[in-house]
């Protein structure tokens, strides 16, 4: 670590609450790489935690942000703005659900909106409010979304948490049935659990959840904050399962790094929130919305849904060869370019070794190395990265 990095990290530690412990200071990004403040270039296979699906500083997105920033940066929701209005219509179109959109500023807030909408609907439909969520799921860090996140590391020290959540086991329909009460109003699920360990739902489970929700008059809510916007090879991961949710949420990758969250409903729930029943000062910010419109254009023009499937398959194949080689690696799983490498031990050691070789990656779920590279990743970059991953694994697992 050279001087500039040291200097900034020292100031960081003196000035920021230690909720994170970074060791890299990023100065700029371009496509699939970032440059640190000392000029070191690294592959960003975190995409800023699933944010840069179209890569860092895509020229079309940069242009859209610059143009909109020079025109109007905020309107408040007392007055409409054109980019947010267009974006809502496009998201509804991509979803095929025929509903409407509420805009927020983050994933946690989009999920809060989903929880509130479900409760409001439940209040009008039998006085129900309880939402079933899943162990190893992740829904955010506000109090309600922490209560929805059935993981103790997230909840410890924050009692009393909001009530109204019950937990079930992922990919286990019987455990969902066991969690239902006469107060249950909804089931909230990630089609691919991200933070919890990059675990895809089985086909049977997602179809079973939909059938169960129909049978018991419950809402099916999909949290697409990490898996959405093409990451798994479809616009939204639920589209890969041939089921339709009643509500789903987006954030991370929606506006390529400009903070934005969105709740999308189906037709039936489009008008459950009425005037003044929910709100956000910044929600639907025109700069964020302009960036999101550009993101959608880029995904379409560059065929990134197909790329996520194809490059994802190549990447998983390469990782599988390492699983075959090293006893310390157990399994490759995921969908599209949302990929987990399961380790027998602490994944942090692998992530550190990858960083030494020049690749940024993430951990997930206690024993998983998580790769979320930009969907614009080219075959030649993947090949180079694979060699670097090979060297990193050899440095820690080789004889
Ligand atoms: C990151 C994440 C969230 C929280 O999003 P924030 O923008 O950090 O509030 C919620 N759900 C899932 C599935 C996530 O991956």
Topology:
Blueprint: H1 3-15, E1 26-30, E2 33-36, E3 41-44, H2 47-50, H3 59-71, H4 82-95, E4 98-104, H5 107-124, E5 130-134, H6 143-148, H7 152-155, E6 165-168, H8 173-179, E7 184-189, E8 192-193, E9 199-200, H9 203-216, E10 219-223, E11 247-250, E12 261-266, H10 286-301, H11 304-325, E13 329-335, E14 338-343, H12 347-357, E15 359-360, E16 362-364, E17 368-371, H13 379-397
Parallel strand pairs: 3-15, 5-6, 5-7, 7-10, 10-11
Antiparallel strand pairs: 1-2, 2-3, 4-12, 8-9, 11-12, 13-14, 14-17, 16-17
Helix pairs in contact: 3-10, 4-10, 11-13, 12-13
Bound molecules: pyridoxal-5'-phosphate.
Q: Explain this structure to me?
A:
The protein has 399 residues and is α/β, with parallel strands linked by helices. It has 2 domains: 3-54 and 303-397, Aspartate Aminotransferase, domain 1; 60-301, Type I PLP-dependent aspartate aminotransferase-like (Major domain) (Aspartate Aminotransferase, domain 2, 3-Layer(aba) Sandwich). It is built from 13 helices and 17 strands. It has helices spanning 3-15, 47-50, 59-71, 82-95, 107-124, 143-148, 152-155, 173-179, 203-216, 286-301, 304-325, 347-357, 379-397, and strands at 26-30, 33-36, 41-44, 98-104, 130-134, 165-168, 184-189, 192-193, 199-200, 219-223, 247-250, 261-266, 329-335, 338-343, 359-360, 362-364, 368-371. The chain has a 7-stranded mixed β-sheet, sandwiched between helices. Strands 1-2-3-15 form a 4-stranded mixed β-sheet. Helix 3 (59-71) runs antiparallel to helix 10 (286-301), helix 4 crosses helix 10 and helix 12 (347-357) crosses helix 13. The mean pLDDT is 97. The protein binds pyridoxal-5'-phosphate (PLP).
């Amino acid at each position: 670590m050279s001087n500039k990095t040291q200097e900034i990290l020292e100031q960081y530690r003196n000035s920021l609450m230690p909720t994170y412990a970074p060791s890299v200071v990023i100065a700029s990004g371009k496509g699939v790489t970032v440059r640190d403040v000392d000029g070191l270039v690294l592959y960003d296979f975190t995409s800023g935690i699933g944010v840069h699906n179209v890569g860092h500083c895509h020229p079309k997105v940069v242009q859209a942000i610059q143009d909109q920033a020079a025109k109007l940066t905020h309107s408040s929701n007392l007055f409409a703005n054109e980019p947010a209005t267009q974006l809502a219509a496009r998201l509804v179109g991509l979803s095929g659900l025929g509903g409407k959109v509420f805009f927020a500023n983050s994933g946690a807030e989009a999920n809060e909106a989903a929880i509130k909408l479900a409760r409001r609907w439940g209040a009008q439909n039998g006085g129900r409010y309880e939402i079933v969520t899943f162990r190893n799921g992740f829904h955010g860090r506000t109090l309600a979304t922490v209560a929805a996140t059935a993981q103790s590391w997230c909840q410890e020290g924050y009692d009393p948490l909001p009530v109204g959540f019950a937990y079930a086991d992922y990919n286990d329909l019987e455990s969902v049935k066991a969690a239902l009460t006469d107060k249950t109003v909804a089931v909230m699920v990630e089609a691919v659990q991200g933070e919890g360990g990059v675990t895809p739902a089985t086909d049977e489970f997602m179809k079973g959840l939909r059938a169960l929700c129909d049978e018991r008059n419950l809402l099916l809510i999909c949290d697409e904050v990490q898996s959405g916007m093409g990451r798994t090879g479809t616009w939204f991961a639920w589209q890969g399962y041939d089921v339709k949710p009643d509500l789903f949420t987006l954030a991370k990758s929606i506006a390529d790094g400009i903070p934005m969250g969105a709740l999308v409903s189906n037709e039936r729930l489009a008008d459950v929130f009425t005037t003044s029943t929910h709100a956000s000062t910044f929600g639907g910010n025109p700069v964020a919305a302009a960036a999101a419109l550009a993101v959608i254009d880029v995904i379409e023009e560059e065929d990134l849904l197909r790329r996520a499937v194809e490059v994802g398959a190549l990447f998983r194949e390469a990782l599988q060869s390492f699983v075959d080689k090293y006893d310390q690696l157990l399994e490759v799983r995921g969908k599209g370019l949302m990929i987990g490498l399961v380790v027998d031990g602490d994944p942090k050691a692998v992530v550190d070794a990858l960083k030494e070789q020049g690749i940024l990656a993430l951990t997930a779920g206690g024993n998983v190395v998580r790769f979320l590279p930009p969907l614009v990743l080219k075959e030649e970059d993947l090949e180079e990265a694979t060699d670097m991953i090979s060297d990193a694994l050899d440095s820690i697992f080789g004889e």
